[in-house]
Amino acid sequence: MTKQIGSTPATGRAISEQIATFATNLKSTDIPPAIRERAKLLMLDAFGIALASHGYDFSKRAMAAIDELNSGGESIVVGSDKRLDLRNSILMNGILIHGLDYDDTHAQGVIHTTTSTLPTALAVAAKQNKSGADMLTAFVLGVEVAARLGSVAKGGFHQIGFHPTGLIGTFGCTMVTGWLMGLNAAQYVDAQGLALSVASGSLEFLNDGAWNKRMHPGWAGYSGVTAATLGRHGYTGTRLAYEGRFGLYASHLAGRDDYDLSMATQDLGKVWELDRVSVKPLPACHFTHAGVDAAVRIYAQGVRADQIKRIEVLVPEEVVKTVCEPEAAKRKPANSYEAQFSIPYLVGTALLKGRLTLDDIDEPALSDPKVLALAAITEYSVDPDSRFPKFFDGEVIVELKDGRIIREREAMNRGSVDRPLTAQDIITKYRDNAARQVSSARSLEIEERVLNLENGSARDLAACLGRIA
Fold first, then answer.
1. pLDDT in tens, 188-240
2. How many Å apart are CA 395 and CA 242, to the nearest integer?
3. What is the architecture, at CATH level 2, of domain 286-410?
4. How far is CA 173 from each of CA 115, 176, 465, rounded to the nearest angstrom?
5. What is the Cα–Cα distance from 352 to 332, expressed in whole angstroms?
6. What are phi and psi of 397, to 5 degrees?
7. Which CATH superfamily is domain 8-278 in?
8. Does the model's pTM come out above 0.85?
9. CB count, 10 Å around CB of 96?
């Protein structure tokens, strides 16, 4: 029997109604200054990744397809002179931000929050000619809702085969759009109910390195705008979007009974989940970071590839399906995207080179025989001491040919809530990524506009982002 912790009968108010009330009453001044500053850094990080993505084949193919589907419009594509209609711009910008798997993660919700809510906030706020402060508020709202809705499942969506970034991101983007459009409480409830029917995201791409995942956040924004706009016009949506008999959790967790509905609204407006969003220091699935950083430390001890006999990586049980299986494919990734979800390839790279950069997951690097040789002798085991999902932790154990055992544990992944990247770390990451697409002058202009967003307008920011020269 499904455990209905925090279900509606006790209060008589549906979860969608509670979220609607919060959104209706939310003002820019309700958000603490430290959260607003953190939000701008998350935005900056995401825009840098979007700029870097232009150098990859997936972005060119996505742009060709979306351009063919486009119906005209003035919404921008980050780092491009292209103009698209509102929803297609959100789809494209979501692909750019998420395409390198270098974007931030809310650990407890196991969800990339910025990658869907930011493109939505940018496009809708610019079209509505909202202030930068309003765009920022809508973005924070989307992150708060999505992080909590993801947390309810306690990692369960991944176990069933759903990708919460796309699935849950739709609800966050619905709230972003609704706030910028000025929905009332009843319209918000309808919009969330409608989002239930358009939210999606499958993990099947893990089996063949397909590009599906890259489009999930942008599609969440596309769908969220659709749901919010229908709700604004009085198109009726189901009230029990989350806790209903066929609501989000009952339908997408396949009978699991360990989810906690109370987390959907717990401390909403008091504790800011945005402050728990982790910025990635490495361009790969967050589940692999502990292994990579542990391997880098082993390399720093002087261990070299030709000394290694066997490698074992301890990982949380919940991430095995994502980064360790199927084993044959993980040991020899067919493309860069598959490599980003491969413990054997990434740990092998770190042990060989003492680093992991975007260049190390680009197509030419995938055929490096020395990396593949290390991947071939890499095995995984379930980590008995894991604290997932609070931390994406792990351990690397290397057996050397002379019989020595070298092990390094990453008990708290770099960039996590309790080990965050500094503001300067994030700015440096942004600059490195932006340099792949724009001049240093344009990079600096974007940086200044984002970090001073509350003193400008959404349209001014969009105009700055939407050009190269």
1. 999 999 999 999 999 999 888 899 999 999 999 999 999 999 999 999 999 99
2. 37
3. 2-Layer Sandwich (3.30)
4. 10, 5, 20
5. 16
6. -120, 120
7. 2-methylcitrate dehydratase PrpD (1.10.4100.10)
8. yes
9. 33
